[in-house]
Write the structure tokens for this entry.
Amino acid sequence: MHIAICNASIPYHKTLEYRSLRKACIDLTVANERANEDIEEHLAGRQLDSTRRLLESKNKGPEVVVLEDFGLTVTPRDKKRRHSAQATVDVAIGNQRQSLLASANNAHLQMAIADMVHCDGLPFAQVGRIRFRKVLKLAKTASSSFKCPSRNQVSGVLLDKNFDSCWDDNRNILLASAHIFGLYWLGDGATIGRAPMTNILGGNGMCAPIVVAIIDCTDHMVSGGKKDAVYIASLFKENMELLFKGRELELDVLKETTDLFFFDGASNVQKAGRCLEAYYPRAHVLHGVEHVIALFFKDLASHSIVKVRGGCNVFYFLHNDSPSFCFSPINIIQRMILIECRLYNVYGSGASHGIYALFQAHAALHNDGKYFGLLRGCSTRMASWFIAMQRSLRQRSALSSLVHDPKYALLDIVKSEEKVRLATIDVKSDQHWKAKYKLVKIVEPALVALRCADSNKASMDKIYFLTDQMSKNLVRFEDELNDEELFPPLEDGDAGLDCVEMEEDMVFGQTSDGREGDVMAAPVPGDDDVLGDDEWIGMEHTLTGFAGEVADIWHRRKRTIDSDFAVTAWVCSVVPVVREDVKARMDGNHREAIERVITKMYYDDDREPEVICHEFWVQFNHFQNKTGKFANEGRWRLDLVRQGESHVWHQHYSLPYYSVFGKVACRTTSKILGIGAAERSWGAVKHLKTDKRAHLSSGRVEKQAILYSTARIEEARAKRQAKEHLDGDFDIAANWGDGGEK
């Protein structure tokens, strides 16, 4: 038998890098263990409460079981036998037998667990999840009379008790900081398993949006009703008031704390928002930022589409433009998207096994041994093709080395397929990469805004700054946008255009990437968007050519994002780069917008609105100039400032000293930007109501979906906090300008 011994060692010049990497891995492991401990601690309390409810429902007192530890109480015998200090032969054999029996039992249990995972098609990570390990831990303490709950018990009384406990927990979390940060509400509609459904979520500055209700609207539709504004508004009002049921002055507290409603651009939900705004006079109704940004990218990709086929020009105009725009350079956006689609189909989709295997090897070589591929865009997902361009830019070196690899040139598909030949030309084209870089660089603030909207973190104080950065980018890169060498107009016989059209149906003809009944993760609003195409209003600017057309598209959507609420949060931000922007740009129009928000927030105050606004401006001057209670320079160097948590900073250092400014700052800066959480919550419903469980009742779907989504949110939040503890937060100032050029 030959024994191979590894004599490999780490080079001296790599020692520090290895130690740093090893320390980072250890820190991440410790952080994940800390997160699991936090989740287990929370889970223990939840299950204890559910068990108490179950015992009470069976009319059994708490003395039946010790809820604090679930331990077995061992009663000592009245008479104890004396044992010799020296073990006999029989005792030694018995101990050995017990040890062997324990080992056999452990192995038997491990095999049973593995068999359950394998045969039930569960993910292998199931054995590491906290709830599964909690079951094993509690099983040790169960008595011999324990019986596994039946299917009806799990879907009946146990589901009810678990849901009631989760509901109370969610309500307490949601309302804990409502008097400081206020509440925001969001909702979305979808068709799941051919059933019309609506969800409602709520949140405050200290927690991510929580699922409040998932309503099946089938009965309402059967009775002849519609999902119109009145019905949607009544659903929100009913479920919002249910949270405050049993609390003193419940309706007054709800009206006092409700600040915002978020919806997409559909006319029925926007009208429902207006109904709710009338009932809750402090509330504002806003479009979800991610939907507005999605409409911008959709317009950018489809405005004044020109198709050239064999010398016959077929024109499709999104707006009533003059035919003089038929060869506008904006067509290059569509062509770049189609070429991006071709790059994915050739190199990233795996359609050609040989090309894909080589690309994997080169991608890993250029990314420290870690492979990540190209992204597949989709016309129904928000800005996905522009995000795919970001990824392909990152993979440029890998693609370049791939097409220059001798093994790549020997592949038969490279020699025979025209699509592959043109993709190779695209990779080798410096002009292609430069145009893609400039385009992604210009729209980067919009992509950052989309990221902020999708993060479910308080970012209202940053969005007005981001939209202005996007406008400034259009001015800054006007010459590059109008450069016909970078962005040439389409012409008949354009190289590769016929082959690009082969990809066209996959991009512009694609409406869904799933089966019937699927809900897209982020659907692009359709023709029922409130800001319809017939409301095209050109904004005043001095840009011309391609840059002017992009500016028209951007400013049309920008005005929906730049609300009075966003302006108010902007002036209250503690982020240094945003504060400098406030000093440079704030004018009388901004002051009027802020005063409208203050007047609405204090609509029932005995004081005159002018008096309250004056008090706000006096206190705001202290904040802006770092005087008064804001003169402590150490407070401006806290991690809260670097992490952009303006609402938490104001809670500690503004609200205790300045009542008006502190309240306005806490209420406005603590809000998220969109309804991404409402759309993602449908994933929990789809996970439960599959084709095999299509007949699952709506009540059980609602309860289990809330339990499932709450558990996923808790785990994601704990792991995100652990990761942020190691990596720090996203720096908003480092994503454009001179610092972002590199």
Summary: The longest helix spans residues 15-57. The beta strands are 183-192, 195-204, 207-216, 258-263, 284-287, 305-309, 312-316. The chain has 34 helices and seven strands. The longest strand covers residues 183-192.
